């Protein structure tokens, strides 16, 4: 899940901005072939199979690699795989790895490693579980080839193996893949273009990734997550900033080279700075904000109470309160699968119109007993602002609301328990939310995933979606799923929008994406 939690918008005085010089380490930022970057949050979970948190995905995309990967057009292309074959009945798939693949410890990547990795990932990931349920066997054939035999055709097999959504189907050595899926791997050893430098990790301050000298890029041009990943820098320093404004000032001062999420209220100043370039992208590079509901505890164990929220979540008012400029936002979007994408639909949304009077009447009739709605929220973030807008509407119609600001790691720990919280606001990449198969709160229906929402009709329809042969069939099934999702209320959308990234204007080859990617970039 995308934490996407932006820091406090504290304006810095000139003196405070000057004082950040020692914090940031200017000499390190400008060392030859070194980049210093500030990402959405600190990476603390370094196991690509362990969580849906997006900062772990960003870390993993640099340190680990996948069998297949998605390009900018949404097509799935081979990455670690060289060639593959499928039988006429679509049941037997054979995959051969490309030459030269090595783990960061110097040992060769083998088919046995990949089989073990897929089996471990398949225990944690919703799509992986679906694939493994349809798998009759998955075994290595020789050092570079493995075979997957299905019980029935699985048309989206390659889409699943190359999905950009966390938990990533990332490959790791078999000895690490032997780590139980409910435990984290002891060390992040992958085969990706960068390797983790454990000796230089300073939690709360900085993490260092260095160029993997053994990495052999594909020959194709880099294309989103696919193609050749040519690393042109020696060191990538991931800095932790105390707040968002500190990072933006550091970017303008040239003390850092890239910042993933810039504060909306500083965009006019940043746009005037010739030393800074901005990235503000649309389409799948937009984000979808959601309130994730806890169905395991009162009051949202009551579906009638959950459905009241559809009349209280005011997307336009929320994005205005956050300060999202008009050019960075979509109009109020009723689609779980993102507006402006192939599966976009308004099916099931007829009653989801902001109406406080109607919500008050529905709440009164729902059986709500005045239980407190505990809203976990990241202190100082834009999602906290989103929560405050909803909380006020909830209070206005009769809910008892308790807002609990916390840091993101605390929320991750709290949400794993079935009691003690009612909802939390979060926002996620469009690439995560544009399909029922990848939408965190729909794809996880009836799985052991924080929120514990379940309607047995949805898993059956998800299965039908994977078997659908045409886009039209998938559109029809996606609309059916959304109708049920509006009844179930696994989450409530609070807006679709873009967030600008920024980087120093002397950088070349910066991949234009909402995903932070630092192969190809040079200065």
Brief overview, please?
30% of the residues lie in helices and 19% in strands. The protein has 523 residues and is α+β, with helices and mostly antiparallel strands. The chain is globular, with a radius of gyration of 23 Å.
Sheet with the most strands, sense and barrel status: 7 strands, mixed
Query: Beta fraction of the residues?
Result: 15-25%
Helicity range of the residues?
Answer: 25-40%
Using the alpha-carbon principal axes, give the shape.
Answer: globular
How many β-strand stretches?
A: 20
Distance between the termini: 32 Å
Category by helix and strand content = alpha+beta
Poorly predicted parts: 2-31
Q: Mean pLDDT, as a whole number?
A: 92
Number of helices: 18
**Gyration radius over CA:** 23 Å
Strand order of the largest sheet: 10-11-12-1-13-20-14
Structure description:
By secondary structure, the protein is α+β, with helices and mostly antiparallel strands. It is 30% helix and 19% strand. The chain is built from 18 helices and 20 strands. The protein has helices spanning 14-24, 26-29, 54-63, 111-124, 126-133, 157-161, 174-177, 244-253, 267-272, 303-308, 315-322, 356-366, 382-397, 408-415, 430-433, 440-443, 457-467, 471-488; strands at 34-38, 65-66, 68-70, 76-78, 81-86, 92-97, 135-140, 145-150, 170-171, 194-196, 206-211, 235-239, 258-259, 276-279, 287-293, 372-378, 400-406, 423-429, 491-497, 501-504. The strands form six sheets. A seven-stranded mixed beta sheet has the order 10-11-12-1-13-20-14. Strand 3 (68-70) and strand 4 (76-78) form a beta hairpin. Helix 11 (315-322) crosses helix 13 (382-397) and helix 17 (457-467) runs antiparallel to helix 18. 50% of the residues are buried. Residues 2-31 have low confidence and may be disordered.
């Amino acid at each position: 899940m995308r934490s996407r939690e932006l820091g406090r918008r504290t304006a810095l005085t000139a003196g405070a901005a000057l004082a950040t010089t020692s914090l940031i380490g200017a000499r390190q930022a400008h060392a030859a072939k070194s980049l210093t970057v500030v990402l959405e949050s600190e990476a603390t979970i370094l196991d690509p199979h362990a969580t849906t948190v997006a900062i772990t995905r960003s870390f993993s995309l640099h340190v680990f690699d996948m069998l297949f990967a998605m390009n900018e057009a949404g097509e799935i292309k081979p990455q670690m795989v060289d060639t593959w074959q499928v039988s006429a009945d679509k049941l037997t798939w054979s995959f051969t790895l490309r030459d030269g693949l090595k783990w960061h410890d110097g040992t060769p990547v083998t088919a046995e490693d990949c089989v073990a990795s897929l089996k471990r990932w398949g225990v944690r990931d919703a799509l992986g579980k679906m694939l493994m349920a349809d798998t009759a066997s998955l075994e290595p054939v020789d050092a570079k080839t493995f075979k997957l035999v299905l019980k029935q055709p699985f048309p989206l097999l390659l889409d699943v193996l190359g999905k950009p959504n966390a938990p990533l189907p990332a490959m790791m050595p078999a000895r690490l893949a032997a780590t139980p899926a409910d435990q984290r791997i002891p060390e992040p050893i992958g085969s990706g273009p960068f390797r983790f430098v454990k000796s230089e990790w300073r939690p709360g301050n900085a993490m260092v990734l260095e160029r993997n000298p053994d990495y052999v890029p594909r020959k194709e041009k880099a294309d989103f997550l696919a193609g050749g990943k040519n690393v042109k820098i020696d060191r990538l320093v991931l800095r932790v900033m105390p707040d968002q404004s500190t990072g933006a000032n550091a970017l303008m001062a040239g003390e850092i080279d890239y910042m993933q999420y810039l504060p909306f209220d500083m965009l006019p100043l940043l746009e005037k700075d010739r030393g800074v370039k901005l990235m503000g992208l649309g389409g799948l590079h937009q984000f979808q904000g959601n309130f994730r509901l806890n169905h395991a505890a009162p009051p949202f164990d009551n579906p009638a109470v959950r459905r009241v929220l559809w009349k209280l979540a005011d997307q336009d008012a929320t994005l205005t309160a956050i300060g999202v400029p008009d050019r960075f936002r979509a109009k109020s979007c009723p689609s779980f699968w993102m507006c402006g994408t192939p599966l976009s639909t308004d099916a099931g949304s007829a009653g989801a119109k902001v109406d406080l009077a109607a919500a008050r009447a529905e709440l009164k009739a729902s059986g709500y007993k005045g239980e407190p709605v505990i809203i976990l929220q990241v202190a100082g973030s834009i999602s906290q602002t989103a929560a405050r807008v909803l909380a006020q509407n909830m209070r206005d119609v009769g809910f008892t609301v308790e807002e609990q600001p916390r840091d993101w790691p605390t929320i991750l720990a709290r949400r794993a328990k079935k009691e003690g919280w009612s909802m939390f606001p979060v926002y996620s990449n469009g690439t995560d939310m544009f399909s029922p198969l990848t939408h965190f709160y729909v794809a996880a229906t009836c799985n052991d995933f924080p929120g514990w929402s379940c309607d047995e009709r949805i898993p059956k329809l998800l299965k039908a979606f994977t078997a659908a042969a045409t886009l039209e069939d998938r559109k029809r099934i996606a609309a059916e799923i959304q109708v049920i999702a509006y009844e179930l209320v696994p989450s409530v959308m609070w807006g679709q929008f873009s967030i600008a990234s920024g980087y120093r204007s002397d950088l070349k080859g910066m991949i234009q994406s909402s995903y932070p990617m630092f192969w190809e970039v040079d200065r």
